[in-house]
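Subject: sequence -> structure tokens, single chain

Hey, anyone have a minute? Need the predicted structure for the following. Not urgent.
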Amino acid sequence: MEAMEDDSLDLKDDHNHNYCASSSSSSKVRTYLSSQLSDVTTVPQSACPPVPGGEPGTRRGKLWSGTTGSKFMDSDSGSESSEVSETDCTAPPAAVEGKFSLDSTSKFLLNAMAVEDYRKNHWPNLEKAIDRLLIQNPTDHISVSYAQIYSYVYKCVCQQHSELLYNDLTLKITNHLQQVSTHLQASPPEDFIENFNVALTQYTASLQCIVPVFMYLNKFYIESKLNRDLREDLMKLFADHVAEIHVNTLMPLLLKAHSMPFQVQPSTMASVVKGLHSLRPDWALLAPALFSGFIPQINPPAVESLLPDYAAHDQKLQLELSMNGFPRGDQSRKRASDDS
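Reply:
Had a minute. Here:
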């Protein structure tokens, strides 16, 4: 008894209440613990799989014996870190693999529940808001909760639904643009330029509202993973599904309107030509004279040797204007001075 009291004096308590023996009595403590543990009925170590979290003996803890097996308890917190039952020790490897496959199935079910929540709650609300933004006129002021849309987009991105949200968004806008294209196809030639301008202007105004509320999607998925920009992608959809389909019809009408001044409003002509150039700069090659009248630096730089040709072209233009009812007037008379 006195020997045990002497040994206990050599045990030191650290700040985590883990007892360790000093160098002088470590062998005695090991002998005492081994004699105590030998009385406990345990399963042979070779029959049990290693304890998760490290190699056997690398973690400090207490071994509790029970009727169902053994439990490895963490000495720092007293919480159960792992449990190995007798059935786990005697079961074949296939049973252990089945246990881990159940965990994978649980994760799959959780992901399926998250996607179902996205389909039932998040996307329907976003879809309604997108519909209202796409069909609005530039002069209309509709009531849309941008903070709520922003919140839905934020939650979708945080829940790892960025790719799903991007696909749904582009598909929704693509279907809308296909309807716009069908509507333009039924337009009469005299109204085609005006209707195209309305469609382009309305779509551009809608993107000014859609792109900002999808900022998180653009920043954390489109820019970081796809190396693109949301507004550029959505404008490309208009070019692919509307402008490219009707450019062969639109260009002759624009050339005809350009040759007959004020047949179409100058503001409408400028909007359509500049819009086509922003969508596809290569379309300027189809009618350089038309695009150069609204966009600078379309034509190549002037060459000194071609100055007579430039002068002839200007005289021809003045002649055409005078023949269409735009006389130059009396150029000899100047505006009277205000001082006279």
